[in-house]
Amino acid sequence: MVPRITFHFIWLVLATCVHAGSLSLQNPRFTITSSTAAQLRTDTLSLAEKPEPLKLGPSDTLKFTFQITENGEGKGVQPHQTFLRFHDSVSGEEGIQPVRVTPGGKAKFELNMARPPPSLPPTADRPLEVSLILGSFVHEPTIFDLFDLYVPPSHAPAPHPDEAKFHVLPLIHHTFRPEQKLPPKFVSVVFAALVLSPWLVLLGLWSKIGVRVPHLFSPRIIPFTALLGAFEALLCWYWIDLKLGEVLLYGGILAVPTIFAGKTALAATGEWRTGKN
Amino acid sequence: MAPAKSSKTPVASETSVALTTMWKSYIQHTSDRLKLIDAFLVFIMFSGIVQFAYCVLVTNFPFNAFLAGFASCVGQFVLTASLRAQVNPENRSEFNDVSPERAFADFTLGSIVLHFFVYNFLG
Q: What residues contact residue A187 under an 8 Å CB cut-off, 6+ apart?
C-alpha cells in the first residue's frame, strides 16, 4: 500500500507543477481566398495589436492556422477545449465554434462564407470580434483577442411557423340582436280584451246551462276545493317569487292533505251520484 | 251554370238542416254536466285562438309567455276532452273501470302538473 500512495503523491506534485504553466500561440496566420482560389489577403497575426479588420465577401473563405505551445516554447500541446468566439458587441449576439487541435498543438480553422456554419451569429454591417478561448485542466485558461471580422450581413431570420399566433388579435365586436319592442299600447289593450273575452263566453254559456253546485259548501267538499285553490295560489306564488326547490317542497307538503280531502270529497260525490246517501 | 246553381242550393240547405238537427239533438240529449264541460272546452278553444292570432298578427315577444299560454290552452283542452270522454254515460262500456270521480281526480292531478309547467315557462 505504501508504494502505491507514494506513486499517487508524485503524480499530484507533478500536476501542481504543470498547472503553473500557461498556453501561448505560435505562428497564428490567416489567409483570405476568393471563390476562384485567388489569395486576397494573407498575414501573420500579432497578438499584441489587432490587425486591420478582415473583410469577407459572400463567397470568400477565411483560413486561420495556429499552433498552441506551452510557455511559448516549441513543444506543442493539445488543450482540452479550444473555441473561436464571434461576438457582436453592439447587439450582444455571439457564436461559439469548437476548433479541432491535433496532439501536436496544430489547429486549422476554415470559414467559408458560401456555407457559413450555424454557429455564426446574425451579422449586420458591424464587425464581429473574433477571439480564441483555450481551456485546459492543467494550464491556465487563456483568451486571445485575434481580430475584427467583417462578414456579409445575414438574411432576416425566417418567420417561425407559429409566429402569426403571437400577435394581438383584432378586437372582437359583438353584434347583438336589437331589443324586441312591445307593440303599441292600443294594440296591447285590444288584444288583452280579446284574450279575456272568452271568459264572458264561458260565464254566458254556464249561466245559460244553469250550473248548480248544491254541495259546494258541504263540509266534505269545501276542503278539497280550498286545497285545489291553494295549489293554484302556490303555483302563482312560484311565478312571482318562489324558487323551484321551495315550490316542490311546499307542493309536496300540500299534496298530503289534498289527497285525503280529495278522497273524502270524491267518495261523497260518488255516494250522491249513486243515490246511496 | 244554371243546373249547378240549382244543385248547389239543395246541398246548402241539406247541410243547414243536418247542422240544425245535430244542434237540436245536442241540446235535447246532452246532460247539463257534459254541456258544462263543453262550454269550458269552447272557452279554452277561443282563448287559444286569440293568443295564436296575437302571436301571428302582432308579435311573438315574449315568446316564452306565448308558449306557456298556448300550451296551457292545448294541454287543458286535452285534459278536459279526456274528462268528458270518461264521464260521458254513453262511453260507460269503454271506461267500465273508471268512475266519474276517478276521472275527475285524474283531471285535477293532470291540471296541477300542467299548470306547474305552464308557470315554469311563463318567465
A: B58
Write the pLDDT tens digit of every residue in A19-32: 557 888 888 999 99
Nearest to B47 among A195, A239, A262 (CB): A195
Please judge whether B116 and A235 are an interchain contact, meaning their C-beta atoms are less than 8 angstroms apart.
yes
pTM of this prediction? Answer: 0.58
Give residues with Cβ within 8 angstroms of A199, minimum separation 6: B43
Options 3.40.30, 2.60.120, 3.40.50, 2.60.40; which CATH number does A15-150 get?
2.60.40
Q: Which residue has the cell 463567397?
A: A59
Domain ranges within chain A, ordered by starting residue: 15-150, 213-277
- Do the chains contact at B50 and A198, CB–CB below 8 Å? yes
Q: Which of the residues in chain A have pLDDT under 70?
A: 1-20, 276-277
Measure the CA–CA gap between A61 and A38, rounded to whole angstroms: 10
